[in-house]
């Protein structure tokens, strides 16, 4: 499973890239606004750090404007994937963009049927938001299992990008189900290599070695 960072914070991206586990980055208008910086300037910095897919989202709501925005974003670099919302206008835009060879990440997906439509219009990625479903009392991970089953039934090439990830358990469950990609905040990614027993075990090894080294 590929691991993406869901952020527009360049410092976080640099740290994760240094660990050697970062496969890509997803951004959205909220994350970019949080940084208070020019959108394309941030994207160019990310492109310089990450040799992998980078999702950049359109902010228009009509298909023609989405298409133009998507084309402009795709011109920035070959690693740019255009994020388009799951709406009827978004479906039209995705069909057009994908037919012209522009890779689309269809976002704000909350049901298997939406994911089916995303695959039918040629989306490269589909992004189901599991954390937001959990917040509403639905088990978000269930739709990942259902989407993967539908895609297998019809041999769709669209990859499932698990989004709105809240904790490491979401990452583990996504991997166990066979999701293609999991994108997460830096606060979740930095927990993945951590374990209390690793810390105590290392401390013991070093303490024992210190006794030997002083002999």
Task: Give a short overview.
The protein is of the alpha/beta class.
Largest sheet: 8 strands, parallel, barrel
- The sequence of SSEs as H and E is EHEHHEHEHEHEHHEHEHH
SS-based class: alpha/beta
Give the strand order, joined by hyphens, for the main sheet: 1-2-3-4-5-6-7-8
How far apart the termini lie comes to 47 Å
Helical region count? 11
CATH class: Alpha Beta
Find the count of extended strands (DSSP E, 2+ residues).
Answer: 8
How confident is the prediction overall: mean pLDDT? 96
Number of domains: 1
- Portion in beta strands: 15-25%
- Rg measurement, Å: 19 Å
* CATH fold annotation: TIM Barrel
In percent, how helical is the residue content?
A: 40-55%
Q: What is the CATH architecture descriptor?
A: Alpha-Beta Barrel
Name the shape in a single word. Answer: globular
CATH superfamily: Aldolase class I
* Poorly predicted parts: none
Protein architecture, described:
The protein is an alpha/beta fold. The chain has a single domain, classed as TIM Barrel (Alpha-Beta Barrel), CATH 3.20.20. It contains eleven helices and eight strands. Helix 1 (10-19) links the parallel strand 1 (2-6) and strand 2. The longest helix is centred in the last third of the chain and has 18 residues, at 196-213. It is globular. The mean pLDDT is 96.
Name some characteristics of this structure.
single chain, 215 residues, alpha/beta, TIM Barrel, eight-stranded parallel β-barrel, 11 helices, globular
List the helices and strands and how they pair.
Blueprint: E1 2-6, H1 10-19, E2 24-26, H2 29-35, H3 39-49, E3 54-57, H4 63-74, E4 80-85, H5 88-99, E5 104-109, H6 112-120, E6 125-128, H7 130-135, H8 140-154, E7 159-162, H9 168-177, E8 181-184, H10 186-189, H11 196-213
Parallel strand pairs: 1-2, 1-8, 2-3, 3-4, 4-5, 5-6, 6-7, 7-8
């Amino acid at each position: 499973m590929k691991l993406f960072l869901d952020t527009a914070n360049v410092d976080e991206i640099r740290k994760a890239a240094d660990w050697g586990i970062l496969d890509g980055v997803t951004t959205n208008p909220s994350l970019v606004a949080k940084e208070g910086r020019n959108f394309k300037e941030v994207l160019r910095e990310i492109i310089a750090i990450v040799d992998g897919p980078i999702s950049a989202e359109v902010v228009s709501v009509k298909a023609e404007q989405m298409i133009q925005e998507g084309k402009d974003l795709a011109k920035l670099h070959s690693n740019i994937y255009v994020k388009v919302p799951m709406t009827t206008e978004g479906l039209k835009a995705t069909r057009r963009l994908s037919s012209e060879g522009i890779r689309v990440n269809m976002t704000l997906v909350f049901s298997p049927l939406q994911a089916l439509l995303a695959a039918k219009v040629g989306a490269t990625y589909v992004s189901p938001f599991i954390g937001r479903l959990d917040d509403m009392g639905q088990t978000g991970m269930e739709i990942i299992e259902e989407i993967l089953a539908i895609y297998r039934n019809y041999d769709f090439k669209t990859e499932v990008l698990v989004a709105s990830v809240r904790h490491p358990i979401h990452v583990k469950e996504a991997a166990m189900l066979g999701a293609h990609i999991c994108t997460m905040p830096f606060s979740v990614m930095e927990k993945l290599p951590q374990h209390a027993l690793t810390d105590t075990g290392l401390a013991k090894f070093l303490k024992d070695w210190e006794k030997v080294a002083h002999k």
